[in-house]
Every structure is written in structure tokens, then in C-alpha cells.
Amino acid sequence: MYHIALIEADWLYVEVLGTDWDQEISALFPLEHRTDGNLTHFEGESIEEHFYRLNKVREVFLSHFRSMDLTDWRKPRVIEHYDVTPEWVVYHLIEHESHHRGQIFQMLRELRNDKC
């Protein structure tokens, strides 16, 4: 969940808004995204703390997206290596979370089978 929230915040601030991260959001991510090329393993937080982080990022994300009109929604943001629209960002993040939800449910199935 740390990774999902971090990616959503990054797409919002870097690609859509083109600004530095808000301090309140940045403070929710004390660890680097990757360690030795792998996603950083994050332990020691309750599921409620993970949900708080994800919900806070989504609250800020939605507040920015709700203020967009259709023209801004489809206006390309020109990034160094690619162009991206807010419309595509939302599509991409839905796809991203769906992928990780599948992984989470697969891991839960495997854990449940190990305990039987």
C-alpha cells in the first residue's frame, strides 16, 4: 500500500501538476521508493496507518482533479521523455492498482493455503 500511495502522489505532483510535493504529503513517505532496485520493504505500521496514507494522498489527488475542466483534463503535460494527460494518468493508476490488488490477493491465497 505504501508503493501504491507513493506512485499516485508522484504522478499527481510530477506529471499532472509539475510541482514539488506538498510537505504534508511528502512527510507520509519517510522511506525511499526503491532499495537495491527493488521496492522498499516497509514494516512496522498498522493497516490503519497504511490506509490513512493512501486516503490522504487520494484526498489531495481528487481535490486537484475535481477542479479541472474538460480542457485541462485532456491537456497534455509535456515531460522530458513523454507527454501525458490527466485523463491518461487516472487510467494508468487504475491499471496500476488493479495489478497490485491481484498480487495482494494471490499472496493472501497462498498464505491461507499454507495454514490449512
TrEMBL record:
Output the InterPro entries linked to this UniProt entry: DinB-like, DinB/YfiT-like
Report domain DinB-like positions.
Answer: 2-104
Protein's name in the database:
DinB family protein
Q: Which Gene3D superfamilies match?
A: dinb family like domain (1.20.120.450)
- What are the top taxonomic ranks of the organism? Bacteria, Bacillati, Bacillota, Bacilli, Bacillales
